[in-house]
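As described in the Methods, two query proteins were run sequentially through the folding procedure within a single session, without resetting any intermediate state between them. The first query and its resulting structure tokens are shown here.
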Amino acid sequence: MINLFQKTSTEINIDIAKRMVLLRKRKKLTQKELSAKADVSLGSLKRFEQSGEISLQSFTKLAIALEVEGELENLFSEVPFDSIEEVLNGQTK
């Protein structure tokens, strides 16, 4: 079944970038300060905040600098099964 309300990858990335901007501001960090703390170029940070585009490596560095790396470490750790077939397939690995 097609989900007509499913977000695109770009929409999801922009939403994540917006949350990261709010977190950066909550911690009272400028873009320049965060880029230095995370060892990510200022241009990459600005592009991410505007478009949601960034490498996974740089994204992880930003999360570490903002002290939210645990959120990434837990990503996909508790994904529920969609079917009994998935349960059975998961047990054979």
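Immediately afterward, the second query was submitted; its sequence and tokens are:
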Amino acid sequence: MIEVDVRGFSCPIPVVKTKKAMEENPAETIGVLVESSVSRENVSRLARSRGYSVAVADVEDGFRLVLSPPVGQDAEGS
């Protein structure tokens, strides 16, 4: 699993870093740590728009999102 820790950053940085991780690792599940509900919503929106499923858990210092790629996703992004 790819890990992206964007706690301490305000939008759009969490979305930009998550998008980069998605593009560089299209078939990988991505764990994202965010601090604010705004970042949680924005990253979730990005992931869902790309077909990822999103699971959210409350953690001590924010939220942990687990983004699972679409079924059948491969390195070419098909």
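The mean pLDDT is 93. We note this only descriptively and draw no conclusion about the first query from it.
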